[in-house]
Design a protein that fits this description.
2 strands, about 5% strand, two-stranded antiparallel ribbon
């Protein structure tokens, strides 16, 4: 225990931690108890109330962490086998204090937003049970004080995301998307589990404090631990080549995307790397690989967003791109900058997804942005909120994204990774372009000839709009809290920005100029005259690059060819083998039994004479056998 709290306060703050952790579980249990019944609005409000309690406790813990407080609490011994001991324990430090505040804050307003968004859905109660269960799993993941507890929470969020992505299970596309997300993450989780096994093999423990203080003498083992843990992070954070599930996960309700696929679950991979920074700091070569992969994903995802026409998928690709930025920072050793970008990104990205939900309500679940237009007046409040989110995403000052994204660019330039810096600057240009392409096509461009046949689009309800306001506020001001966040994290590991050839102002000016150029090009290209004159759009053109990007570089098709079709062929072969061998074998057993039953049926004929004959025959056989036995013994 450190900071201004004495030892007498440990129990109080342990209770605060357990409240933050288990309050969402209470909401999930109560909502689940009414899951099969008709909609009850009180269920939604009760679940939101539980998340609100968790938020208050999380803010209290965050204030503690701001003053350098860290502590742990143990409920009971979880596993005890020989020398292997794992306690059911949780801890608080500066890293997970930031995470629990973000998780609980975004979760609260997503829950409130969902009350009206899901108002007419017959699975209302079930939805809130899954959503609160997800929040509990995520809190469990970040508050656990050991790798095994983290893995339990890791699997919990995977399960809840599967349930929420496939929430509308009547749709085959939703079922397919949920299975794809589940399978993709299970593949990655195998790597993570092997990494945890290797951690225990090397250190004899899975508790963070013991693992990070232990000396792993073998560089090769340490490298394998870093690689295997990062494989798990790749799956959860949808990094290439395990990225395809994220865009398809948009089949779930839109608030699910705001919570899971923007603010919390997909950032768990970044959290894992930041949490395990004492290990990754010793293997900078693995960190470089993480950084280069992150930079590739940043422009890889952004390039697909440039041509996509699906409202939610564009924002999903944006999430994937921003996760790339976070991994660049984490890979280069700027763990606190990665955490800061995670912090700011959660607010403006969840704001964008909720704004997309408002548009979908107005368009009766329509998602094609090329069939929209002129929504600025009927959806003026949504337009303003999404403008705030887009400006923050593009890194325009004074919005939150400007501060966190520019720190990543500055750090990569000053540490002589100028190639990474150039790639990320180009990614910033693409981000600004596709963000305002979406914005202009939805709100300002004239309606297309095949626009959705909705004469009077309606604005979202007051509850939905009011629940977005706190997110919009933090999308504006969250960037100003960098000094406080850095002061918190200095208690764990000191950090200072290196100096390079260009000043911070010069680098920020370059990034701002590039982003502004992207915005201007999008406004000119997709502005008021877009659909009527200039814009026989690139969406309708059939150039090879557009075709390549719109088909996601044909990677899903390649996966289908290599894995799905091969697996289908294997299943077909197994089915033929089953029919040719097992079914015929079972049929032969049946025929044999029928033949035996017919044979025995002749004996069981009800005749007393036949029965006496059989008895005499049996006695003779017994006497014969006895005689052979006696004579043989002599």
């Amino acid at each position: 225990m450190s900071g201004w709290i004495d030892s007498a306060g440990v129990n109080v703050f342990s209770m605060l931690l357990l409240t933050a952790l288990f309050a969402p579980l209470l909401g999930a249990i109560v909502a689940g108890a009414f899951g099969g019944r008709e909609k009850c609005v009180l269920i939604g409000w009760f679940a939101s109330f539980c998340i609100g309690i968790s938020l208050l406790a999380s803010v209290g813990l965050g204030i503690c962490a701001l003053h350098g407080v860290s502590f742990s609490t143990t409920l009971f011994e979880w596993i005890g086998v020989g020398s292997f001991r794992v306690e059911f324990g949780f801890s608080l430090d500066s890293i997970n204090a930031v995470m629990i505040v973000v998780i609980s804050f975004v979760s609260l307003f997503v829950h409130i937003y969902s009350i009206d968004y899901m108002a007419h859905d017959r699975g209302f109660n079930r939805y809130f049970s899954f959503l609160s269960g997800f929040v509990f799993s995520m809190m469990f993941l970040v508050l656990s004080d050991n790798f095994l507890g983290l893995f339990v929470g890791w699997e919990g969020v995977g399960l809840c995301s599967y349930l929420l992505i496939g929430f509308w299970y009547e749709r085959s596309s939703a079922n397919a998307a949920s299975i794809e997300a589940f399978v993709s993450n299970r593949i990655a989780d195998l790597g993570m589990l092997l990494g945890i096994f290797l951690v225990f093999y090397s250190t004899g423990s899975v508790k963070y404090s013991e693992v990070f203080s232990a000396a792993i003498v073998s560089p090769s083992i340490l490298s394998w631990i870093g690689i295997l843990l990062f494989i798990g992070a790749m799956g959860k954070s949808a990094q290439f080549p395990l990225h395809t599930w994220l865009a398809n996960a948009m089949e779930g309700p839109t608030p699910v995307s705001a919570l899971i696929h923007a603010a919390t679950m997909v950032t768990a991979g970044v959290y894992l790397v930041v949490r395990a920074h004492p290990l990754y700091a010793q293997i900078p070569q693995i960190g470089e690989y993480i950084a280069y992969l992150g930079a590739f994903v940043a422009i890889f995802a952004a390039s697909m967003a440039v041509v996509n026409t699906d409202l939610k998928r564009i924002i999903a690709y944006s999430t994937l791109s921003q996760l790339g930025y976070m991994f660049v920072a984490a890979g280069l050793g700027a763990y606190w900058i990665a955490l800061f970008h995670l912090f700011t990104h959660a607010f403006f990205k969840s704001l964008l997804f909720l704004g997309a939900g408002n548009i979908m309500h107005a368009m009766r679940d329509g998602l094609d942005i090329t069939r929209m237009g002129k929504l600025a007046r009927p959806l003026k409040y949504t337009m303003l909120l999404m403008l705030i989110g887009n400006l923050a995403l593009c890194g325009i000052p004074p919005f939150a994204g400007y501060f966190s994204k520019d720190l990543i660019l500055e750090f990569s330039f000053n540490t002589e990774y100028k190639i990474l810096w150039g790639v990320l600057v180009f990614g910033a240009f693409l981000t600004a372009f596709y963000s305002f392409r979406l914005f202009m096509l939805v709100f300002f461009a004239p309606k297309a000839h095949n626009a959705y046949a909705i004469e009077h689009p309606h604005e979202a309800s007051k509850t939905m709009l009011y629940s977005m306001l706190p997110l919009a506020l933090l999308a504006i001001i969250a960037g100003f809290y960098y000094d406080e966040l850095l002061a918190m994290l200095q208690y764990i590991k000191p950090f200072s920005m290196p100096h390079g050839d260009l000043s911070a102002m010069s680098l920020a000016g370059i990034a701002l100029g590039v982003a502004t150029l992207g915005i201007v090009l999008a406004v000119v290209r997709y502005g008021c005259a877009c659909k009527s004159r200039v814009c026989k759009t690139t969406e309708s053109s059939k150039c090879r690059l557009h075709t390549l990007l719109s088909h996601q570089y044909y990677i899903p098709a390649l996966y289908h060819l290599i894995f799905s079709r091969f697996f289908g062929w294997l299943c077909s072969l197994a089915w033929r083998f089953e029919r040719g061998v097992f079914e015929k074998s079972m049929y032969a057993v049946g025929v044999l039994l029928l033949w035996l039953s017919r044979l025995l049926a002749r004996i069981q004929n009800g005749s007393l004479t036949s029965a006496l004959r059989l008895m005499v025959f049996g006695v003779l056989i017994m006497l014969l056998g006895l005689s052979v036995f006696v004579l043989g013994g002599m």
